[in-house]
């Protein structure tokens, strides 16, 4: 069900984010991540596929707001949607200075937008995680303007697993050092 899926996502992303408000792109350092490069190429391809000009754009499964940040200068109104409340809060915090962004917590199968109002609708590495992909696509069709653009990307599962394993192996010593780094003692306060 969508509710159990939402609970699973919430638990997973709470563990991933752990109270930090960072963009996804900042999580993976350039000198340590091959996986990061795939994501950057994907984002560049999405940027190239966007209509120009556009009034309103939606990023469904917006996560921490990376694609929303790319959309901000390109559209008058940008809407991000995610099922995980922790991701919605993080995206809102990351984009708090952008006046043309709304971030909503909503399932993909229920898009809370009016009909025929969206110029571009992005599902970047999201559709494979949806409980009801066809229900989502029906909603996208409902809100897209005539001539609007739907952009869907989905990773190759075998390659994703391979790159994450390589990155995980290469980054293991750095993660260990961060976890075991000695924290400085608190200062001694004298009265």
- Poorly predicted regions are none
**Shape label:** globular
Tell me the total number of β-strands: 5
Largest sheet: 5 strands, parallel
Helix segment count? 7
Termini Cα gap: 59 Å
Percent in helix? 40-55%
Percent range for β-strand residues: 15-25%
Helix/strand structural class:
alpha/beta
Radius of gyration: 19 Å
What is the average per-residue confidence, as pLDDT, rounded to a whole number? 81
Which oligomeric form is depicted?
single chain
Order of helices and strands: HHHEHEHEEHEH
The neighbouring-strand order within the major sheet is: 3-2-1-4-5
What does this structure look like?
The protein has 191 residues and is of the alpha/beta class. The protein is 46% helix and 19% strand. The protein contains 7 helices and 5 strands; from the N terminus they run αααβαβαββαβα. The protein has helices at residues 2-17, 24-27, 34-49, 66-71, 85-94, 133-143, 157-180; strands spanning 54-60, 75-82, 101-105, 118-124, 144-153. Strands 3-2-1-4-5 form a 5-stranded parallel beta sheet. The longest helix has 24 residues, at 157-180. The protein is globular, with a radius of gyration of 19 Å. It starts with a helix and ends in an 11-residue tail after the last helix. The mean pLDDT is 81.
SSE blueprint:
Elements: H1 2-17, H2 24-27, H3 34-49, E1 54-60, H4 66-71, E2 75-82, H5 85-94, E3 101-105, E4 118-124, H6 133-143, E5 144-153, H7 157-180
Parallel strand pairs: 1-2, 1-4, 2-3, 4-5
